[in-house]
Structures are given as C-alpha cells and as structure tokens.
Batch of 3 targets.
Target 1
Amino acid sequence: MSNHPIQFFILAFVGFAVSRVVSRYREGKLQTAPMIGWAAFWLATGVVSLLPQVATVFARIVGVGRGVDAVMYVAILGLFYGLFRMFVRVEQLEHQLTLIVRAMALKDRAGRSKQEPTAPDAGAPIKAYAEQESRGHHRVL
C-alpha cells in the first residue's frame, strides 16, 4: 500500500481536531459524551484515510458501489442531521430569550408602578450572565 499526500494532510488535520476536542473537554467546554463522539468521529476519519479499504467494505455491506460514495452519503446525512439539531436548538434559545425578556419587562413594569420612575440598568442581566459564564456555571432554562 502506498501513501498519498492527501493522507498525510488528513492525518495532520485529524491530529489537530482531536487535540482541540480534548482541550475543549479539559477546559470544561465539552461534556464527556460529545467529547467521546467527536474523538471517535475524527479517529474513524483517520482510519478511513489510512485504510481506504475499510470504506469499501462498508460500501459493500450497505449496497453502494464505491467506498468514497458511501462515505459521502453518510457525511451528507450527518451534516443535514447536524443542521436540523442546530435549527431546533436555535428555536429553543429564541423561545427562552423571549420568556426571559418578557419576565424582565413585567418585573420592570411592576417595579416602576411601585416607585418613582428610574432608568434601569439594561446591561445588568447581561453582566450577571457573563459572571456566571466566567465561573463556569451553565444553567439550562
């Protein structure tokens, strides 16, 4: 088996990607399950790069002619699934943000009716959130 320049490029990138996954995990920015999933994905990418016959065997099992075709089909499916998940997450975040803003507006309105009108510190909720983020406290609403 001869090695091709693209294999070295892919392996270098896999090494970089795995190092980023591990560093994000150590920083506490990535939980264990996603870290394992991403590391497995990048390691599988490295294996397929070094041993392309693995993709060919997979292609035959699923009924596709060439290994590279099977890899592309799986990649496209994975990308669209990831896009769907991100879309759902953005929708959830928008809904949570709407609830937070609504609650803040009602609280502000109730506070104004009890006392003299004062200018609220509009940045206070953002500052409080930033402080929680800096301490590593992540709260799901």
Target 2
Amino acid sequence: MHSCEPAPACTGSCRSCPSVGSCPDRIVCRCLQVTEQEIITAIQIHGATTERAVQQLTEAGSGCGCCRREIRQYLAVYALPVVQVEMASV
C-alpha cells in the first residue's frame, strides 16, 4: 500500500501543484499511473459525474484509495452541475 504523502519534486509524480487542473502530466493515481489529464478527460469528454464513473473510465481510485479525495476535487471543479428541469404540465 502506498503512502498518501506528497512526492518531493514536481516531475509529473508530485502532489505539490497549487491547484486541481494546473499540471496535466501530474500523476493523480500513483497505483495505476493515471494522470490529471486522464481524469479531466473522463469528466469533461466522457461525462463522468461520480467518483465511481471516473474509476470505471480510468481505474483511478481502485488501488490503495489515496487519490479518491482528489478525484472528488476534480469532479467538483470539472463536472457540470446536474440541473433538474421541471416539466410544465400541458
């Protein structure tokens, strides 16, 4: 099992980037080597709106689980809000 501690240098394997979406090559899921860009693509292009959907599309979060909190942060930033529209009765 991996530690949830940040790596020391930013070479795509660190967790010290200042914010979600700041480093496309950064490895978000160390167990399966899933990058930030893969997570964002799963959300924006493939329509993932839940942690489970991101996991199914990328496998991120299915290893040790350290990245699950961060996946939720990506969802909060990149997932389109679900808008419920009430149909007017005819």
Target 3
Amino acid sequence: MRLLLSLDDIESALAKLPGWKRDGAELVKTYRFDSYMIGIEFVNLLAKAAESMNHHPDLYVGWCKVVVRLTTHSAGGITLLDIQMAQQAERGYRSLEVSHESTHAA
C-alpha cells in the first residue's frame, strides 16, 4: 500500500508543478489546447503513461480543455504516485506544445 503524503510534502511538490492545486484528497489541473484534437492527443499520451505506471487519473474532456484529477484510491488520498503522474502530465503537455509549435512554424 502507498503512503499518504503530508500537506507539507504536497505543497512542496505543487510548487514545482505550475497550475496544479490540491482539492481535498486530489491533485487537479485544467489543461487548455488550441483544438479539441490536440486535447485528445494529450489524453492518449496520458493514458499510455497511466498504463505503464498502473496509476489511472480521472480525465474530463471538454472543448479545447482536459481536466486531470489525481488521487490514490487505495490509500485514500495523495501519494507519490500522484505527484509522479502529474509530472508525466506536464512532460506530455510540453511535448505536445513543442510538437504543435514546430508544425505551425513550418
């Protein structure tokens, strides 16, 4: 079983994760995209990372946005897995930004 993080540990991690916030026992961020399909690309990237980590976020897809909610259900709150999944989300988002910026520049 995963150990819950202290509030200090969570706040320290959030300081390095722009736009993420704690909402009770969850970490939450809304990502915005230039198009609906780029948001879907992001969901697919996140789904692959989630499968490899065996840690699956709640994802809510809207028009040009994706809301990511992370918690470790088995532990009843936020664990290191949630921080690591948030870091994966950030890397995936940055890779899409770079990918689509170079497409627009071409």
